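re: ur question from yesterday

yeah so i grabbed the chain u mentioned. its 447 aa long if i counted rite. heres the sequnce exactly as i have it in my notes:
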Amino acid sequence: MSRKNRIIQFVPIALAIGLGLSAIMLTGPARTEFVDSSDYLAHANVILETGQYPNEGNLPIFRPPLYPVFIAALWSIFPGSIVAIKLVQVALFAFAAWLIFKTAMRITENQFLSLAASTVFAANPFIIFVAVSIQSEIVHIFLISLMLYIASGMLLDERIRFAPAAALGAVLGVAALCKPSALGVGAAIAAVMFLIRFRQKGSLAASAVIGAAMLITVLPWSLYLLKTKGEFILVSDGGGYNLWSGNLPELVNLYERNHESTAEEFALSDHFSMTVSRRQIAEWEQTVGYQQLSLKQREGLWRAKAIENMKANPGITLKLFGWKLFNYWKPYVNPNIHSKTASVLSAVFLVPFFLLGAFGIFRVWKDARTRGIAYLFGAIAVSATLIHVLLVSSIRLRLPYVDPFLAIFAAIGLGSLLARLFAKVEWLNLGKRLEIREFAAFCAAEG
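ran it thru and got these structure tokens back, copy pasting raw so excuse formatting
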């Protein structure tokens, strides 16, 4: 690799760091206000003060461990520093941008398109926001970006190799300790990897290795819970609660009401997640002695109540599924919460991002060498969507699973459109005029 090529791959790192540091200054270095932030910080404090993982936080469940442990580890070195958390998160953001560049290089074999993909990723305003917020998303985005790098290498390799399969499963296992939805998405990835390569010897074994490595990675945490909580819990006790909280019939008001501010929406969200849940707990305390139940018994109560609500209100449940599907994929933020300007600007980024991404997926699918990459994205996008439509949904929860991969497809889609334009309008061909050889060659091939 030439010196110029080595330098180019670090451009997205510099861009992500620059944008991340700017966002820290604009949003406030010590600012922590967000729905889940106080809970993560409280979990980290309990870990540092007691050496034990808490049974619950603001919600009647305990959070998945990775992000609170991440904060606690940083605070063991920089006590109480919010700035330290944000700076390390910006570093993860930058590393993820570099991984997107390397993944795009594997898929496109074109440095210009890879630079475009990593630039789209690093300039994504939603990812920049979570990178400088006290939220678990940026850690998850980094892990999913690493997973994409490994998975794309496996699909483009002519041979079945078990070491990358084990690495892929391990990364998904760590991701599950950040967000348990990675277990379901990981199962879908293992399945599609087998279906893409089922004619090759060892394809089933490789997919089994992915699943086994994922579970083995999670197992030490499960055994810790068995030792400290007295029960075998895979990652968190929040499955039943999240099913209940995401399908409350009253939530229709949250989706259909035009909120006048972020504070109003958060207040209504807190009402459903905290006030209503406390009322439900008080009812169970009177009937079954909720506080005396084990964690798994409590989760079972939440799950049973969620299913009861869904069966009693099938029409409302379907309406909630529809709203959550829209919320997961909508190409703008709510103008009543974030201002009309913010809503328009978000649409200016997201609408072309989705359209170019869709065209890029089609281009990748048409190429026999990379067709499996398109199927992999489909498996990730569909499984993640189904999980969040069933449980809880938002643009923020879409970011880790969709946006990193879609940045690569959007760059391919944009490159293909530019190539066709340049082929028809010669004087616009900047690749040729500026002697960017890779892009000039790409334009010639596409044209």
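noticed a couple things. The chain has 22 helices and no strands. also The CA atoms of residues 119 and 398 lie 19 Å apart.
anyway ttyl
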